[in-house]
Amino acid sequence: MAKKAKNFKKSKTGAYISIASTAAGAISVAKQAKMARKDDDMLRLVDAAVSAAAIVTGLAILYRELKRLGDDDVLLG
Predict the structure, then answer these.
(1) Quick check: 22 and 34 in contact, CB under 8 A?
(2) pTM (2 d.p.)
């Protein structure tokens, strides 16, 4: 059982769950950016931009991992 849980991150299901949770973080970043613009807070706006860049990078890494797993999904090519 422990081995099965350990390899979950390297499975297609684990990758899809990671993508979903990473994308859900984008909602928080969007709210943060909206509040920063409303309050005219440049430091929070920069923080939101850096966080957004981290989310995009994380999604790209997860996408690459899915391609390596040999996903047969038509949408991934």
Answers:
(1) no
(2) 0.70
What DSSP assignment string belongs to 33-73? Answer: HHHHHHHT-HHHHHHHHHHHHHHHHHHHHHHHHHHHTT---
Q: Exposed (0-12), middle (13-18) or buried (19+): which is 57, by Cβ within 10 Å? A: exposed
Token pair, residue 57, equals 């990078």
Per residue in 29-68, pLDDT (tens digit) is 999 999 999 999 999 999 999 999 999 999 999 889 888 8
| Domains of the chain, residue spans | 30-76
Q: Tell whether the torsion through CA atoms of 5, 8, 17 and 36 is positive or negative.
A: positive
